[in-house]
Amino acid sequence: MGKKYEAIRKLVDRDKRYTLAEAVELLPKLKFTKFDETIDVAARLGVNPKHADQMIRSSCALPHGTGKSLRVVVFAKGERANEAREAGADFVGAEDLVDRVLKENWLEFDSAIATPDMMGLVGRLGRILGPRNLMPNPKVGTVTMDVAKAVREIKAGRIEFRTEKTGIVHAPVGKMSFGPDKLRENILALLDTLQRLKPSTAKGKYFKSVSLSSTMGPSVRLDTNEIVALIER
């Protein structure tokens, strides 16, 4: 680790569990880069993703967006294609887009949406889009007939997330420049969504640990008891 990182790491008490208010106030003090860093949440949940009924995959609309301009591709035809363009989709097409991805390995987009009738075609892209978490999926609202709504939500800052093998959910919740209040509201929106998605078969403590970190900074662990109290208000 560099000297700057080592210096700011000393500002974090590794034995302390910070309140959310304390954590979002501390994050700017841990910044030593010149660019606007992304703030991420890492939540370790009391689930076993090996069981299908405990695999959490969904999406969440952040009140203040992510601070990032996302490129959206829509696989649709006819009226739905026109609706997608009007809603602000960056790329719209059908067989032509599928062929472009297959033949050119074209991946210049951040999110993909498809109408249900297009999934037969789009399914051919599974080996390319799947490992990159770009495959349209009804669980996160990216396989839908209401493509205009999906495009607007993603452009406004809707994020997708899923549990990893270890039961951890990683998700971006904004930029350092957002300030404490907007970051706090975005973080609570994500954690509230995770709480509502708690599987009925999950036993024991659900939020085992929750940490915040910036792109280049050290992580700050949160008080999970306070988190639960905040989202249950």
TrEMBL record:
CDD domains, per database record: Ribosomal_L1
Family matches, as SUPFAM superfamilies: Ribosomal protein L1 (SSF56808)
Gene3D superfamilies for the chain: 3.30.190.20, 3.40.50.790
Keywords from the named record: Repressor, Ribonucleoprotein, Ribosomal protein, RNA-binding, rRNA-binding, Translation regulation, tRNA-binding
Pfam families associated with the record: Ribosomal_L1 (PF00687)
GO CC terms of this entry: ribosome
InterPro entries xref list: Ribosom_uL1_bac-type (IPR005878), Ribosomal_uL1 (IPR002143), Ribosomal_uL1-like (IPR023674), Ribosomal_uL1/biogenesis (IPR028364), Ribosomal_uL1_3-a/b-sand (IPR016095), Ribosomal_uL1_CS (IPR023673)
Keyword Ribosomal protein on entry: yes
Coiled coil stretches, renumbered: none
Domain of life according to the entry: Bacteria
Protein function: Protein L1 is also a translational repressor protein, it controls the translation of the L11 operon by binding to its mRNA. Binds directly to 23S rRNA. The L1 stalk is quite mobile in the ribosome, and is involved in E site tRNA release.
Known partners and oligomeric status: Part of the 50S ribosomal subunit.
Similarity field: Belongs to the universal ribosomal protein uL1 family.
Protein name: Large ribosomal subunit protein uL1
Primary gene name: rplA
